[in-house]
Inverse folding.
């Protein structure tokens, strides 16, 4: 994957997809696999918006059973299965325990009936999943003693046990998006990050492409395409502000979905669902209040999700410290034994997703379906469809539905491609345990078990692309990435020894080789691309100032950054991390490096 703007401007595309989140990436992959000349552009980095800010869950639809919505429950389950089949390195089953108390709505009998019904409804959920460790099991029911053993801090007053169902969990949501993008490129598509569509190009009543700006250099250019899919998530409607073409502008309601991470090791591999204080207005069956979840995440615990109607611009979405305290108070009120404290919080995330059509500040009406706008029907504009995705889980299906809407407006010939079974990049293997055993024989002695496991989870069967760098006698950075330097220059051809590439970023298990892979093969253009999305440097805590400095120095050597540019990248990444780290605490605090020190690191890795 190379960022080459000439690829965008040198030809006309059949389909142009705007938005490199999960929905846009899935649509671009489907279009490329169908033999269409496909381009994908993203105004920031791939998966840097709501897709990366999600709760890392692939929902199988059990919540829709509460709404008596059988078709949607079946559809969600089918999409979870598709992810488990096609990205077995990035998605795995997650058992979730719901404590039971007494009888009635909170009792075991009601949950037992509901979960058995859901198991029967989704009887085919494991079809085509060869790896048994990736298969979703039937519901289990735990005794009071077993529940207490797994979760010593749950409220024991009236506890009768727990009901357990399985859902899906992503190892890294941003890398799952990247796997879709890479799959689109491998199928012949063109993808570029940091390219923003600013307006549509129209000939009469037909869209013929977009005007775009390169956000790396500020350059303006046009991208020609016969069909355009606007899948820019919460930014999508801002492209529709031309009143002459699209009528009076109105932005639909969005929810700011938020969670945080606490520095508390999980007591088991099970997630825990606890009753919160808000109600699900649309629930026909089930408990009186919505569940909040405490989920194992690496060596910490994810906590969420909280929803808030958010009418402001997407760029203003963030979590305030006082909100974190309110959420802690809510959890401690419903389950006093947890005794959560503000000092335990290491990370917080939020993203925007559509709310219910009639939602307001008083009505928590949660969105259920993605928004599709066929502009030929609504505005008389041909060749344009807008998709605003609702749940990461539905990205594949909804992306293809939007693509089908577009293709219905053209005479383009396509070939068939079953994206429910074709592996995503890195997912071309059947058994993760066998893949792990093979990788251990080849590389564990050189990089260590913990690092190797992370590389396998992030890259799947493409792990050798990263780890071969640690065994070769020298490595040259490859290719050209337009806009990779302040002046739009090319990459440097810095050579480094295998021992340097095998080294780990200070205070982490991330290899220097992973930085090189991100720049040379995965279109990483800024330090935050690597820190927040390409690697495990910061998915749950601040990696430390020294880690940022070393990572930036290596990127600078590969991309010909000046010493000033390296320092700017560090500061920009610190600002982004500050939005995620409410307590602004580093995992391993150290003195901030001065520009001369950054320069010395840059010189060292360039030597």
């Amino acid at each position: 994957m190379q960022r080459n703007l000439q690829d965008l401007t040198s030809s006309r595309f059949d389909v142009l997809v705007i938005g490199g989140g999960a929905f846009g990436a899935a649509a671009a992959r489907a279009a490329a696999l169908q033999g269409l000349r496909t381009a994908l552009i993203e105004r920031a980095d791939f998966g840097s918006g709501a897709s990366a800010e999600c709760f890392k869950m692939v929902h199988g639809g059990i919540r829709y059973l509460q709404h008596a919505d059988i078709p949607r429950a079946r559809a969600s389950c089918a999409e979870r299965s598709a992810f488990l089949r096609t990205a077995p390195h990035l998605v795995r089953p997650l058992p979730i325990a719901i404590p039971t108390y007494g009888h009635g709505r909170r009792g075991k009998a009601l949950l037992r009936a509901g979960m058995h019904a859901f198991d029967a409804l989704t009887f085919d959920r494991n079809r085509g999943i060869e790896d048994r460790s990736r298969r979703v099991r039937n519901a289990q029911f735990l005794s009071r003693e077993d529940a207490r053993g797994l979760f010593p801090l749950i409220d024991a007053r009236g506890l009768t046990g727990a009901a357990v169902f399985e859902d899906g969990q992503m190892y890294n949501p941003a890398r799952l998006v990247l796997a879709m993008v890479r799959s689109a490129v491998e199928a012949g598509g063109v993808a570029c990050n940091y390219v923003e569509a600013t307006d549509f190009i129209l000939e009469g009543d037909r869209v013929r492409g977009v005007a775009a700006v390169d956000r790396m250099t500020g350059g303006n250019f046009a991208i020609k395409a016969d069909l355009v899919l606007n899948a820019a998530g919460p930014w999508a409607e801002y492209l529709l502000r031309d009143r002459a073409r699209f009528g009076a502008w109105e932005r639909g309601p969005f929810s700011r979905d938020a969670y945080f991470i606490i520095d508390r090791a999980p007591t088991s591999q099970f997630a825990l669902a606890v009753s919160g204080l808000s109600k699900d207005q649309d629930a026909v069956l089930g408990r009186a209040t919505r569940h909040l979840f405490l989920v194992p995440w690496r060596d910490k615990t994810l906590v969420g999700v909280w929803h808030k109607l958010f009418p402001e611009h997407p760029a203003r979405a963030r979590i305030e410290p006082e909100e974190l305290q309110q959420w802690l108070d809510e959890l401690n009120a419903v389950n006093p034994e947890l005794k959560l404290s503000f000092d335990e919080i290491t990370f917080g995330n939020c993203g925007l997703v559509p709310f219910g059509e009639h939602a307001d500040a008083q009505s928590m009406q949660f969105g259920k379906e993605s928004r599709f706008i066929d502009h030929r029907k609504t505005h008389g504009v041909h060749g344009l469809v807008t998709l605003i995705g609702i749940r990461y889980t539905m990205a594949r299906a909804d992306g293809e539905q939007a693509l089908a809407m577009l293709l219905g407006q053209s005479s383009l010939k396509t070939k068939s491609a079953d994206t429910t079974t074709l592996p995503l990049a890195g997912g071309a293997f059947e058994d993760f345990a066998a893949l792990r055993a093979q990788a251990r024989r080849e590389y564990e002695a050189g990089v260590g078990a913990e690092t190797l496991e992370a590389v396998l989870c992030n890259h799947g069967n493409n792990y050798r692309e990263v780890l071969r760098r640690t065994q070769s006698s020298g490595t040259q950075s490859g290719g050209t990435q337009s806009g990779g330097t302040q002046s739009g220059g090319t990459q440097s051809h810095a050579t480094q020894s295998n021992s340097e590439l095998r080294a780990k970023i200070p205070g982490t298990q991330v290899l220097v080789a992973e930085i090189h892979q991100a720049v040379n093969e995965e279109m990483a253009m800024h330090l935050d691309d690597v820190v927040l999305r390409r690697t495990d440097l910061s998915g749950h805590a601040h990696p430390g100032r020294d880690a940022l400095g070393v990572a930036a120095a290596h990127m600078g050597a590969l991309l010909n950054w000046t010493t000033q540019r390296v320092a700017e990248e560090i500061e920009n990444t610190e600002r982004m991390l500050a939005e995620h780290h409410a307590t602004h605490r580093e995992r391993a605090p150290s003195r901030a490096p001065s520009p001369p020190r950054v320069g010395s690191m840059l010189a060292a890795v360039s030597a």
